[in-house]
Amino acid sequence: MADLSDDVRELLGARNMAHVATLMSDGSPHVSPVWIAVEGDRLAIFSAQENLKISNLRRDGRVAVSVCDEHNPYWAVVIRGRVVQELEGDEAIAIMDRMSNRYVGSDFPVRSAIVSLIEPERVRVQNLPFEHPSTTGG
After folding, report:
1. CA–CA gap between residue 98 and residue 90 (Å, rounded)
2. Which member of 68, 77, 115, 126 has the lowest number of beta carbons within 10 Å of its beta carbon?
3. What is the CATH architecture assignment of 6-127?
């Protein structure tokens, strides 16, 4: 298992969107934007219902996750790992609500969740010395 450094935990603990790549049955990639959290030494993502992402993870738990800082997209982390545990019920809803409160300030409106806990195997941090130009103005 790869360690999550303090700067990686900071990036994952902010309100940054993550993109999770799973594998389809034919081996092709499927990418989903998700909220993300750190639970102990594992990453947590959730779905409010069973969907393609969950089906892919149940068949093959290997994932790649990328997260960029919302204010500085040149600060990013890419993590490869695998799902080692799936949670449902009250424990999953508690994790889902913690994420929802961090991202939008309230509990998630759907009261069911499937949480996938990911054990990181490889972590790569990128922090490039660029300044992101403003997208406002002419």
Report:
1. 12
2. 126
3. Roll (2.30)
Q: Name the burial class of residue 47, with classes exposed (0-12), middle (13-18) and buried (19+) by CB atoms within 10 angstroms of its CB.
A: buried
The whole-angstrom separation of Cα 41 and Cα 57 is: 19
The pLDDT of 66-89, averaged and rounded, is 96
Distance from C-alpha of 103 to C-alpha of 97, rounded to nearest angstrom: 10
Q: How many Cβ atoms from other residues are within 10 Å of residue 20's Cβ?
A: 23
Q: What is the average pLDDT across 10-22?
A: 97
Residue ranges of domains in the chain? 6-127
CA dihedral of 67, 33, 29, 85, whole degrees rounded to 10: 80
* Predicted TM-score (pTM) of this structure: 0.90
Q: Phi and psi of 13, rounded to 5°?
A: -90, -5
Which strands sit side by side in the sheet containing 114-127, from one edge to the other?
Answer: 29-34, 18-23, 62-68, 75-87, 114-127, 42-47, 37-39
